[in-house]
Amino acid sequence: MVVGFVGLGNMGFYMAKNLISKSPNDMIVYDINKEATKRFSQIELEKTSDSGSKNARIRVANNLAELAESSDYIITMLPESAHVKSAYLGENGLLSKLKPGTVCIDSSTIDTDVSVQISSTIIENGGIPLDAPVSGGVMGAEAATLTFMVGSRNSSEFENAKSILELMGSKVIHCGDLGAGQTVKICNNMLLGSAMIATAEAMALGTKLGVDPKLLATVINSSSGRCWSSEVSNPCPDVLPNAPSSRDYSGGFATKLMLKDMNLSLNAAKSQKIPLFLASLSTQIYGHACAENELANKDFSSVYKWINKK
Ligand code: NAD
């Protein structure tokens, strides 16, 4: 069996690495960034008695059509709706050479309506679509502890994809029909986006008032203010050595991608006529932070830096 993986960025690199490390499947990978595929094909993997170096089981595709032609499963991990749309539907895209019965798993976070449209076209072309966005960040991708939120046509297609997803995550949850995974993910990230800003404000205020940031975080994390942003990816530098904030906000989840997700939630709410006051304000704050180019590509916890500059 061959697994095709498209998008070897901050998340995709580790997800694909866990896939090849933990399964006997061959892999074919593609990224428009040649550095990304080069880095992946050079990863150090242990030798196995049956198949020699696992790296020999990694092939780099020259284009998406070539990847589709060789794959039984395809996983896409791309930034935004437009990238997933063009990867599938574009000229020489995945659908141009899709084999009948190929399982097409999109783990990118994209607009639910776009995801459902792409899934319909995959079905028309003989493929089996699933939306399976993730939560857990780059640290979760590296440790294979991601949570997958899955939308699929039925439980047997979900169970089939689950065996692959479990190689990259510790929780694989069926959320409902096609698109349901994206809906759940968008709601989660809307909450995360506001929680990160709230955490950054609390850390900034306490620190300015003279409290030691590590002590402040320790108390918050044993109190009612505790959340993922305070406990796992605290935005204040040097509170958590492994958090992006302690390496000048490099790696992690880019502020521009958080802005994208906040906008996805606002768009979804517009169609349901639900006013999202806090999410609207948070979206504006990430918009301002992104306008400072330096922060757009940094981890979204760099909103702490933006707050401190004001
Ligand atoms: P990233 O920008 O680091 O990686 C995306 C990769 O896709 C890049 O290597 C880029 O070169 C490649 N790419 C772009 N267009 C392409 C195309 N047409 N064909 C092939 N490759 C293409 O992004 P990321 O942080 O890995 O996030 C990917 C997705 O996962 C996004 O939808 C994001 O919202 C979601 N996500 C990210 C995190 C996180 O912590 N980074 C967490 C959960 C979900």
TrEMBL record:
Active site: 185
Keyword Nucleotidyltransferase: no
Record-linked Pfam families: NAD_binding_11, NAD_binding_2
Domain 6-phosphogluconate dehydrogenase NADP-binding span(s) in chain numbering: 3-176
Coiled coil regions in record: none
The protein's annotated pathway: Amino-acid degradation; L-valine degradation
GO cellular component, one term: mitochondrion
InterPro entries: 3-OH-isobutyrate_DH-rel_CS, 6-PGluconate_DH-like_C_sf, 6PGD_dom2, 6PGDH_NADP-bd, HIBADH, HIBADH-like_NADP-bd, HIBADH-related, NAD(P)-bd_dom_sf
Source organism superkingdom: Eukaryota
Membership in a protein family: Belongs to the HIBADH-related family. 3-hydroxyisobutyrate dehydrogenase subfamily.
Residue span, 3-hydroxyisobutyrate dehydrogenase-like NAD-binding domain: 179-306
Keywords in alphabetical order: Branched-chain amino acid catabolism, NAD, Oxidoreductase
Gene Ontology biological process terms in this record: L-valine catabolic process
GO MF terms held by the record: 3-hydroxyisobutyrate dehydrogenase activity; NAD binding; NADP binding
Catalytic activity, EC: 1.1.1.31
Reactions performed catalytically: 3-hydroxy-2-methylpropanoate + NAD(+) = 2-methyl-3-oxopropanoate + NADH + H(+)
UniProt protein name: 3-hydroxyisobutyrate dehydrogenase
